[in-house]
Specification:
This protein is of the alpha/beta class. It has helices at residues 27-38, 52-58, 79-89, 104-112, 125-136, 144-156, 168-178, 183-190, 194-208, 213-222; strands at residues 18-23, 43-49, 67-70, 94-99, 117-120. The protein is 48% helix and 12% strand.
Length: 226
């Protein structure tokens, strides 16, 4: 593994200083980010690495940075793979993705694996510094284009409902109850006896942890069980 690229910071080690580590394989981008961070009051670039592998070898969990600013498309291990590992090893460190990629899969995977926020490389320097502050104070900064995609993903996302181990007959009976049937008409539709319906209904109540038909129907609708 190579050593981190040295940084020259004029910042002191005061607690108010946001200590940043950069992971970026393109030298001009990496150098530009270092200059921006070290030249801005309240920020310090601790180290700049070319790859996730170098960063994993060089970062000290005992003296963890406040924030990791990482590219996604890196040689070797991807930035998304790195995000997951950094989140496990440095749980208190904020992680920002800074990348050219704005497709849904990369955004979704980066955020699911622990990224605090997701910014595009066309982010203006002043906004980037604001985003670093937001990330270390509990915010989740995103570029406007990314935020719109996240909203779209949220709207399209359909959570997988719990099954509660309902049998096919129990699920059919629950569906009939949701449609407005009572026990007698449900028995006729299912071709079973009234007593068998009562038997299945008791099991449905136990599995759903409810006490009445109305509660069972409400839970089925709320959790998309049928």
């Amino acid at each position: 593994m190579s050593n981190p690229i040295p940084t020259t910071s004029g910042q002191n080690s005061a607690s108010a200083t946001i200590r940043v580590v950069i992971i970026e394989d393109q030298r001009d981008v990496r150098e530009g980010l270092k200059l921006l961070i070290n030249g801005s009051p309240g920020f310090e670039c601790l180290a700049a690495y070319r790859s996730v592998e170098d960063a994993l070898a060089g970062l000290d969990p005992i003296d963890a940075p406040d924030l990791i600013l990482t590219d996604i498309g890196l040689p070797g291990m991807s930035g998304i793979e790195g995000i997951k590992l950094f989140r496990e090893r440095l749980p208190q460190t904020a992680i920002l993705a800074l990348t050219i990629y704005e497709n849904n899969d990369k955004i979704f995977n980066a955020l699911c694996d622990g990224a605090t926020g997701y910014l595009l490389k066309n982010t203006p320097p002043a906004r980037l510094l604001e985003a670093l502050k937001e990330a270390v104070t509990g915010g989740s900064p995103m570029s406007p284009e990314v935020a719109r995609r996240v909203v779209t993903l949220f709207r399209e996302f359909q959570p997988v409902s719990a099954s509660y181990d309902l049998t096919p007959q129990e699920r059919q009976l629950l569906k009939l109850l949701v449609e407005g049937h009572h026990k007698k008409t449900a028995a006729d539709v299912m071709g079973i006896s009234f007593h068998t319906v009562s038997f299945h209904l008791r099991h449905i109540y136990e599995k759903l942890q409810v006490h009445s038909k109305s509660e069972a129907v409400a839970k089925a609708l709320r959790e998309h069980l049928v």
